[in-house]
UniProtKB/TrEMBL annotation:
Name recorded for this polypeptide: PLC-like phosphodiesterase
Cross-referenced PANTHER family: PLC-LIKE PHOSPHODIESTERASE, PTHR13593
The species this protein was found in: Lobosporangium transversale
Entry-linked SUPFAM superfamilies: PLC-like phosphodiesterases
Keyword terms, alphabetized: Signal
GO biological process entries: lipid metabolic process
Comp. bias regions, Polar residues: 298-307
Length: 351
């Protein structure tokens, strides 16, 4: 009798454990409705120059929060720029030039991403690489392996157009997708040539200009997925260089109403919604809500972290697009915003 009771208790505990595990697996990137969708059918909130959050007074700052905070807030794709490091076994993350903004070694960021993947078993992450220094693919391989990420790396079979579902990627453990704009090498198959699979809209958008829906890279070529580059800058000539200065004070509007309008316009142009919605200062505006609308899932009410001293005055992060509906208001006009740009620039003039 006692042995039967012990067996019964053990069976109950095992059943409860399986139920909890099954429940956890029903969420993929935070939403049950994404599990059955293939990787290329999903939209991902993306940070442009995700590493460019420090130092806080840098001229070329694109984000206010560090990458662990971005991950915790729901960002699932990251744009990174690779430069040569003084350490032959590492890569440096810099913006335009390491003299302008040096965000430190890649090894640190990959360690942070690995910790997140270890602790969050149902999340799929994407990294886009701008190989600014023409580094060899083997250099990326070295740093990724040292960070312990090898088992997470997803490789799409050459010539295959069918992608796995998020649930399948989670089940296999291959939850880290990597694209590189140049320098792909078949000897490192997980570091995939971005433009075999993805096209991008133009990324140089000046303050006050309309957001374009044209194919910028690769020139004129449609692909299975696309990046919607949605961020603005103002050109500043300094030290013999033209620097694209991000505009944090406009981010609530840019990432709110303007974002919805841009998505609707490009959906109409391409008959395809974007997969990677890339923004600056993601915590301002309504990026997460808007991406949930693209994915046709009810927003989980995730509130992004508001930095204490971001220097931004954007309506506590709420843009005018709060009530906007993706794929509905295709005829909306963009609105120019008056920004005290030189005040922003002066605040960032620290090299």
């Amino acid at each position: 009798m006692r042995s039967s009771l012990v067996l019964s208790v053990a069976t109950t505990l095992l059943s409860a454990s399986l139920v909890q595990q099954t429940h956890a697996q029903q969420l993929c990137n935070g939403y049950a409705g994404l599990c059955a969708k293939t990787y290329d059918q999903v939209a991902y909130p993306t940070t442009h120059n995700a590493y460019a959050y420090q130092p806080a007074d840098a001229l070329a700052l694109n984000q206010h929060n560090d990458i662990p905070t971005q991950l915790g807030d729901g960002i699932r794709a990251f744009m990174l720029d690779a430069y040569k490091s003084t350490n032959p076994n590492d890569i440096q993350l810099c913006h335009t030039s390491c003299n302008l903004l040096d965000a430190g070694p890649l090894s640190k960021v990959l360690s942070q991403i690995k910790s997140f993947l270890d602790d969050n078993k149902n999340e799929v992450i994407t990294i886009f690489w701008e190989n600014s220094a023409d580094l060899a693919a083997s250099q990326f391989q070295t740093v990724y392996a040292a960070a312990g990420l090898s088992d997470y790396l997803y490789t799409q079979s050459a010539g295959t157009t069918k992608w796995p579902t998020l649930a399948e990627m989670i089940s296999s453990g291959k939850r880290l997708v990597n694209f590189i704009a140049s320098g792909a090498d078949a000897s490192v198959p997980w570091l995939m040539n971005e433009y075999d699979y993805v096209f991008e809209t133009p990324y140089q958008i000046t303050k006050g200009a309309e957001f374009p829906c044209t194919i910028d890279r690769p020139s004129g070529e449609r692909k299975q997925m696309y990046v919607l580059n949605h961020f603005i800058s103002q050109t500043l000539a300094t030290g013999g260089q033209n620097i694209d200065v991000p505009q944090p004070d406009a981010a609530a509007q840019t990432n709110g109403e303007d974002l919805v309008t841009h998505i609707n316009s490009c959906q109409s142009t391409f008959s395809q919604v974007p997969n990677f919605v890339a923004v600056d200062f993601y915590e301002k505006g309504t990026l997460l809500q808007t991406v949930a609308q693209i994915n046709d899932v009810p927003f989980n009410n995730k509130t992004p972290t508001q930095p204490k001293n971001s220097g931004s005055s954007g309506n506590n992060g709420k843009g005018k697009g709060n009530g906007g509906e993706v794929l509905m208001s295709k005829g909306a006009d963009l609105k120019a915003i008056g920004v005290a740009a030189m005040a922003v620039v002066c605040g960032y003039m620290a090299f």
